[in-house]
Design goal:
Layout: E1 7-15, E2 25-27, E3 37-40, E4 68-72, E5 78-81, E6 89-91, E7 94-95, E8 99-102, H1 104-109, E9 111-115, E10 119-127, H2 144-157, E11 163-166, H3 173-183, E12 191-195, H4 205-212, E13 216-220, H5 227-242, E14 248-253, H6 258-262, H7 267-272, E15 276-278, H8 289-303, H9 323-331, H10 337-352, H11 364-373, H12 382-389, H13 399-408, H14 413-420, H15 424-440
Length: 446
């Protein structure tokens, strides 16, 4: 049985008016064996990036000077006490009027705290053991799991042995393979990725090895490779090595490919299974979601000369990328992992870079569901949205719900009707009926 890793509670900035501060973190107490306490206020508790640099408090005027109190609870839980603070705190979508205890499993998964509708933090655990700082290797993130991947990249870069990268769809196996190649002594030699899903369209094994010419050959979906082609590849690689033109072999497989390692799936898979690196899913790196989000946003905004959208808007304006949207993205499960997050942020940047802020509102769920079902470019399914919206009777909708929806959409008829699930014609009829009742019950003038 492996020893349990000692962990300490931590707060990581998910959203801040100054987007450069996203990813900074603060350890609440450093001794996991003792019950601790920490205070968070406008000028209390300093945050810093994991890389060496200055530590700063939140320093936002919307955060109260009176503290939010964090104290250790039983079995790894944490009590969040807001009774002294003037800051409104919403945790995982629920307002905390006084205090609340989060169980150890909730803290382990990560609790999203939204402060004053202005900032977002993640309350989570962090490995307390000191680890040597590694190069980034082109991988974005600072979570313990991505640091573990970097250690594997460093180890594999110094060898020429075959290795298998295993992880869920979209988890970033291609980026890890590229990092291994770039960090090793073959970085200036060819790098070739071959998709093994359609073996009939693949060039002969000797031609593939010849194309690499001493560089790195990556087999995507390696568990789909027929046994006879596996043997041909191994033979071609061994022959190239005998001629002093050795090829580095890397391969990737999805989580479903675990079965391929437990059965006789051919000589290549048997060879690769001797060194397996597990690439974690995004759900297990929740504190990296915001880091990745703003990384992808910067990439897309730079293409259209709109990086100014991520600048600090000042005290009296909301940030271009809303804090509630960041909180929603961090709380999402990401079935297609990093690749899905990249598609979502790319879409948001392209659709809203000319606007004052990303005003996606409740449609974020439609965007997330759409990108989860498809790995390609995604567009709003407008016709499907309109058809599926007509599913409620006007009698089901109260006046309060009607007014709330109208205010949310600034009295625009079509988006209000979509939210309520009725036709625009039915919406106009409801407004007329409501107005008539209001006039009828209005007191007369004296």
């Amino acid at each position: 049985m492996q020893p349990v890793e000692p962990k300490v509670p931590c707060l990581t900035i998910l959203s801040h008016p100054d987007s450069q501060r996203v990813g900074e973190r603060a350890v609440l107490w450093s001794d996991p064996e003792r019950e601790g306490e920490a205070l968070l206020a406008r000028q209390v508790l300093a945050f810093a990036h994991p890389t060496p640099g200055p530590a700063k408090t939140l320093d936002d005027p919307y955060v109260s000077r009176r503290p939010i109190r964090f104290t250790a609870a039983r079995f790894g839980g944490i009590r969040v006490d807001c009774s002294e603070s003037g800051t409104r705190v919403v945790a995982n979508g629920d307002w905390i009027p006084e205090d609340r205890v989060f169980l150890g499993v909730e803290v382990e998964r990560g609790v999203v705290l939204v402060l004053a509708e202005r900032l977002a933090l993640l309350l989570h655990n962090l490995d307390s053991r000191h680890q040597e700082r590694l190069p980034g290797f082109g991988l974005v993130g600072e979570s313990p799991r991505i640091e573990a991947v970097r250690r594997e990249v460093q180890r594999l870069a110094s060898t020429s042995e075959p290795a298998l990268l295993r992880g869920a769809t979209g988890s970033g196996k291609k980026a890890v393979a590229r990092a291994i190649h770039a960090a090793g002594d073959r970085q200036d030699l060819p790098y070739l990725t071959v998709k093994m899903i359609e073996p009939a369209s693949i060039a002969p094994a000797r031609d593939l090895v010849a194309q690499v010419s001493g560089g790195t050959l990556v087999l995507d979906a390696a568990d789909k490779t027929p046994p006879d082609l596996q043997q041909e590849l191994l033979t071609a690689i061994e022959d190239a090595g005998a001629q002093g033109n050795g090829v580095r072999l890397l391969a990737s497989t999805s989580d479903s490919g675990r079965r391929s390692l437990d059965t006789s799936a051919g000589p290549l898979m048997d060879r690769l299974s001797r060194d397996v690196v597990d690439v974690p899913s995004l759900e297990k790196m929740r504190d990296d979601v915001a880091r990745l989000t703003f990384h992808f946003l910067r990439q897309e905004l730079a293409k259209v000369d709109a990086l100014h959208r991520l600048k600090n808007p000042g005290v009296y304006a909301p940030p271009w990328f809303p804090v509630r949207l960041v909180a929603r993205l961090v709380a999402y499960e990401w079935p297609r992992n990093v690749s899905q997050l990249q598609r979502v942020t790319r879409f948001l940047a392209k659709e809203h870079y000319e606007k004052d802020h990303v005003g996606i509102g409740s449609d974020v769920d439609l965007l997330l569901e759409g990108t989860a079902e498809s790995s390609g470019p995604w567009e709003w399914p407008e016709e499907a949205t309109k058809d599926s919206a007509v599913h409620r009777e006007p009698e089901e909708i109260s006046e309060i719900e009607l007014l709330t929806a109208l205010r949310n959409h600034r009295w625009q008829a079509e988006p209000t009707a979509v939210e309520l699930g009725i036709t625009p014609e039915a919406l106009f009829s409801m407004i007329e009926q409501f107005s008539e009742r209001t006039r009828r019950h209005k007191p007369g003038r004296r």
